[in-house]
Amino acid sequence: MKVQLLRIGILACFMIFCWSYEDVSAASTCEPYGEIKPNQNPSRQHINCLLTNASLKENVPPEVVKAVATQESGWKQFDGNGQPIIAQDGGIGIMQITNQPQFDQQKLKYDINYNIEAGVKVLRSMYQRTDLPKVKAAGPEVIENWYFSVMAYNGTKPANSPLYKATGQKNLNAYQEKVYSILEQYSFLNDTKLGQFPFSTADFEYDPNTSKNIVFKKKEYILTNPHSSIYHLKTGDKVLVTRDGVNLRSKPTSASSGKPLSKNTNLIIQGNAAYDESVDSSNQFVWYPVKTADQKLVGYISSAYIMKKV
């Protein structure tokens, strides 16, 4: 019993560790969740931790990586029979790593953390490509700046063109559009709409009847409303509530009691971000401990409902 209580105490402390853009050492391990059992998917919040850590290590917005993992596998490394998920095209595991011989193929199948780290490295390598467009004056912390990197993760093929060449209409079936829709749904709970690119069919050169890669004619876009990753908040940062009725929770879980806040309520980050207290929660966001600017209220707020005050 003492051992069990000790483990619970360690996990409770762990679940409110902090991270930052500059230093992710405090979030360098998810071991307090316990050992990952062979051929079993970890708990949802353990996976949330693994995805977050791997993303920050490679300077990729965790929101983007979590959405990619959702699109690729639904956050699963193993199927119901305990076998590695391998797609018909050879994609392996949670990140569906395909045609990447530089990685250990067995570890990709059986080591979920290795698979995640490999997927994030592949995504990061796509960001470093010089043939893909970027958002003007935006760094890697800007979520929209990964749009074409996400496309390239799946392939810069005609099927993923942002616009249909014949009509100029938005291609909602494009891989990256699906990923960014998932991102809005799970990281922002459909409360925030990401910035929209001013695309033109002239921006993309390709033959829709072939599988040859798209040639990008325009290499830079101006967005009027870009969004930075929420994972770079630190103690003392000021944030605003993005909608009416958001609950300030007593604990980092939706199951705890809450007090509703009004839109644009000023909050101050009190330090350590937390994963959901329920390890099986499907929440992809995190919880930040905050206090109101007048210091009358303290509690936890979902990262889905706040934005940094500028």
From TrEMBL:
GO terms for biological process: proteolysis. It holds the Pfam family SLT. Transmembrane segments: none annotated. The keyword Hydrolase applies. The keyword Transmembrane does not apply. Gene3D superfamilies: 1.10.530.10, SH3 Domains. Signal peptide: none annotated. One of its GO terms (molecular function) is peptidase activity. Keywords: Hydrolase, Protease. Residues 53-157 form the Transglycosylase SLT domain. SUPFAM superfamilies: Lysozyme-like. This is Serine protease. It comes from Bacillus toyonensis.
